[in-house]
Specification:
Layout (H helix, E strand, L loop, with lengths): L9 E3 L10 H36 L2 E2 L15 E5 L3 E4 L3 H24 L4 H22 L5 H23 L1 H7 L7 H6 L1 H18 L5 H8 L1 H4 L5 H35 L7 H23 L6 E3 L3 H19 L3 H31 L4 H28 L4 H11 L2 H9 L13 H29 L5 H29 L4 H24 L4
Antiparallel strand pairs: 1-5, 2-3, 3-4
Helix pairs in contact: 1-4, 1-10, 1-11, 2-4, 2-12, 2-18, 3-4, 3-11, 4-18, 5-10, 10-14, 10-17, 13-17, 13-18, 13-19, 14-17, 15-17, 15-19, 16-19
Length: 529
Amino acid sequence: MPANVRTPLLQSAGPLEPFITTAKHIFGWLAYGSGSGPQGVFSVGFLNPLLLMQNAHKHGVLESDLVTQCSVSPTEPCVVQLFGLSWVNTNSLVFVAGAISTFIQVLAMFTVGAISDYRDNRKKIVVLFTITGVISSLAIAMLPSHLYELHILLFIFADVSNVLCGSIYDSFLPILVRHSHNPDLHYLRRNDAGSILEEASSSSSEGDEECATDEEGPVLLENSVVLDAKHPEEHFHTALSTKLSSWAFCVYFSSTLIFQIVYVFLSYFNYFEKTLLRNGVLITAVWLLLSSIPLALFLKTPVEQTASRSFFSLLFGSWSESFQSLKHAMEIPAVRIFLFSRMFLVCALQTSLSAIVIYSRAYLGMSNFQLLITISSFTLLAIFGTLGFPTLTKSLNLSSLQTVILAAFVLPLAPLYGLIGDLPFTGPQIGFTSIADAYAVTIFLGFMVGGLHTYCRSIFSQLLPKGREARFFSLYAIVSQTGVCIGQVALAILSNVFEQLGPVYIFLTIILLSTLIGLLLLYRHNHFL
């Protein structure tokens, strides 16, 4: 071989055999969401933090003297010494664990995203991290309360596994859509099947070879069906992507709501009061394991890329490839604008939800049971959002992006209503002043979150180039986590400096207007999304 010819890092999977997405593939993909919802939202997001704080409080000491057990005076600030290094407030343990988990997630996504795009690693990685999350949760449920430090480590494992699984799980969507069969275009497959397969094989081979060079940017642009805007199945793929994303989120939130309703019932009647948290963590973990079986058995995708390197070579080279993809993704205006808009949107939504919980508990006297009702109401309306947004899109004859823009116009009404209530010339009946207002805002945000998450995932899946799904959805998850972090930091600063929510309302309004501007810029580039 001549010295100036490089061996491609990626190789074509050979002559492409026709692969068509079937109902069995979609069932395997949707079934996994029925377990990841309760695990991610209810167990990792609610039960685990409560159990961690409960265990730490049992073995903590009062902050005032660092000697007296917290059980003597439960209402006073309680601290524990982590790993013999420093004293940490028991209410802050979750934030400490969450910050560490987020940092690990960002590092891991750059590696996992790149590796998942090779061979059939995508499904293997989802199953591997699912098992890791299940084992971590089972260990947490059986852990003695005095081992709260080990609980923190296991909680981080469970949280990281959940986020990584969600990122790779999302990357299946564009593949399932791309290989779906459109009956209206059957004549194309029948009359020109040979040339289509030949073109697909050539495109895959060329795209694979280009990944090893510095010319990935044009490949990303040309291999993206929607960015190219000339593919005959463009409108079919757009509609199907939105439908599958809506179904997936509906399953995700519906299964979560079922677990929440059962928990609220048991909590209200004080059933299994001492072991309710542990049993909840245990049951959600087992259900996640069961829901992963259809994914492992039925979900199949074509092997569009193989690698000439070993697994460890891929592992060590994954960061370089991820940064290369990140660099070129940022050079594509539509992808860049959408990711920044997504970051602002997640920041605003997360800040809003956190502000509701903190303000309601601190200033409105919301009880734990009322908090459970609030969370369950949010989940229920999120289901309505996943179903209502497609109906709204169809009735108004809007595109997916136009629907998101319409929602972005409506979202600022919530912080503006709260801001009006803080004005000196308004009465106490206006603004965020009661628990009823907390319920109303939660219902509004739940509906918006369900629909917006569905449509954002659908839009982004249409922007992805073939063969880069996992690493691009890892980037999508990183951007979302960045938005969450920005929102949490901003809320912490504003809540410490100001006692009222007025500055938070102003911050939310600015962030939401930035989201709207970004979406309008995206619409200028891509009217057909």
